[in-house]
Amino acid sequence: MLGGVLRIFYFSILSFLIVEAVIDNQLQEVDPEIISTNVLRIGNTSNFSLKCGRRYCFENEICKRLSNDKEEQCVCKEGFSQSESGICEPDMESITNVVNGVPVETAIPFRIEGPTTVRLPQNAVNLSIVFEGSIDRYDTLNYTYYWEVLDGGGFGSADTYTEPVLALSGLKEGVIRLRATVSNDSLRSFRDVSVRILSEKKPNKPPVALIRPASPLYAVEGSRVVLDAEGSSDEDDTQLDFEWKLLNGPVVQLPAMNTAILRLDNLHVGNYSFGLTVKDKEGATDHRTVDIIVSAKRDDPPKAQISECGEEVSRSTIDIRLPRKTLLLCANISTDDYGITSYKWFRIDDLITQLAVDYSGSSTPVLKLTNLQANEKFGPYIFRLEVSDASGQTDSATISILVNKAVNHPPQPDAGSNQTIQLPVASAVLNGNVKDDGEIIKYQWTQISGPNEVTIVNGDKSKCTVSGFEEGVYQFRLNVTDDGGLTAADDTFVIVVRSKNEPPVARASNVTVYLPSNLAILNGSESFDDAGIVRYMWSAHDDVPAGIAFLGLSCDQSIAMLGGLVPGIFHFDLTVTDHSNAQSTTTVTLTVVTGEEQLNSVEMYLERDFNDVTYRLRNKLEGRIATTLAVQIPEATKVDVHFSSFAQDPSSGRLRVVFHTDFANPIHRKGEGANSTIVVSATRAVTILRNEVDMIRDFHIVSINTLYCILDCSGHGRCSNYSKECNCDRYWMPNLFNYLLRGSKLDCSWSILYFGLFIVVTFVFVASCIVVRFRYRSELAMTEWQPSKNRVLSRRRRRRRFRRNDKEPYPNGQISGTSKLNESSASYSLLMASDSLSSENETELNAANANRHATVEQNGVELRGRPSVQFAE
To answer: What is the DSSP letter of 791?
Structure first.
């Protein structure tokens, strides 16, 4: 019996387990997401949001694009439906219960009433179990209730979970999943419910309207304008409503007024103003306006172009060859900004009677030509295309069609046999022949190789002449072209040998250059050799000034150029050398003449640095000089200034400018055969320019002189062109008065010999005057002591006379020796006395003179003594 009880217990437990398994399986088949406790995640739903279109998807929502909407939207997952609050909740379907191991309809029908969505700050909610059907109220007392938190236990709590009414409090943002189970002794049923606690609602902010492109917008009449407002935004990421309105402008039909993108077609000329209003779900709005300025469209005339069908390049000439007899001309590459509306083809050549052709499609873009005929003897077919646009503007183009005859074979040229020539013969004739089924329209001889480049005469003919050969082998090619456009070529060779070398011949002509031209060209290209000249060498004679120099490397060329010219006659040698080093030399005479322009050139020094002189300053100086001379020269209406030199003086650092001036000859204008221009005299120009004080001050001019010194130096010297002074000849000198007054040597009018003689004569004259004056003064002094001397002499004479009277006269005029002695003694005594007297008188005279000089110095007056009276003996 105990074994039977155990068996019954065992089978009861087994049956219970089987029933539980069946119920679980059926529940999973009905709604696996609802009964699964792993479907919902507990926590802040914002952490699991998914961006979808303009908003985020919440829990139990997926992002999906519906067929009738262009944007993606959030929809409920399968097994969930959207409640009135917009939250996806599990579907509340009937759940199968088990009674005594057999599935039956719900034995305890009930539902859960209460809000499924709560928004903070509300923090409490009540859920109630309400029975359905015909359940007796008394029977409900036998039921037991149990609320089970399946998910989200942290978002709320209740005091009891065993009452028909569940009071949740302390709510937090999130989702709470609950299961309510109702059972009695024999039945058990349950329902699941979700309560979503939403965050506290924030104040709604209005959306921001945005229109692209920005205002103002410029468009052309008839074009499409697209206004895009998809850039408008809302902080709550809710879907926005759009409304477009025409605020101002010509009437236009709006294709769609409630879309984010507004497309406007065929706008007329005028100013439009469109308004946009965006509105969110809360009714908040924002407004934007955009101005559209529509101008008249630009309508350029069409451009007519013709091409052969199948090509994309326009052509003015088409060349075809028979037997092709059909040609398609296309005008579809013609262009217009708004499209071409009409095409017209015309034949405009004058060969309608000579050349027949059939054509069709004269009013279409394609003209078909058939039955073409060869026209190389008459001329091409010419067709004109005229195109028009919608505005009536037209354009035209023409095309020429050349039709060549059929079956053309390439020509067969023969350049002739090879030739051998001997120098000094330096030319040959090349004679070519051509065989062709048609006509040769072009010949062309070209040099392929050779020691040097030769000259080909009549190179476009079948027969040509070649000259300028040197020793070596030359290759020439004859190219021919027939009337069908086919070409061919043939080569021939010319061998040039040397029989006997002839020396070269140097030839160059004499050259005359007129200053102020500063360039001389020596031409030796007329030199020749039987085999050609390989080297030229120019050299100057030893007496040529070193300032005359060859420019660049021209001394090694056939044509030499010389600079730094000065007046004179100079000689240069030209030496030419051939391949065999044979040489020939000739002498060239270069004559440099001072021309009228050079002789009448003006030299001007400016206190300026050479590097600071620009063309602007040069032009200003030129204009000032020309204006000044034109005003001062009556016969000139316009004066031209020609500068020949701008240089810096190395000694002073000043700027040296050389120029000459001229003006139109009035006689030449009358047709009388005179020179076309008249050169202004240098002295005349210098005289006029020196009086221009303003010009001298403005341009810092230091000196203005003629380029060449024009002083004649009195015929006894040479005038220096550098110092502008006279260098006198030997025995001649400048006028001292002019030199001391002007500070320069302007003549040589004084002879050094005459000047020296004048100095000597003057010196002698002055010396004589001094001597005469000295003697006069001496005589004046003597006159002061002359009376005393005369008195002495008178006494002496009286004594002598008295002595003669005392003595007797001697007979026969003789005296004795004693008498002579006595007389001699007496005379000696008298002489001694007179000498003593003379000495005394001299002493007195000196004292008197000293006193007289002192008196003259004090009074400034010289007192001359009276001449003494001479006493007769």
So the answer is: H
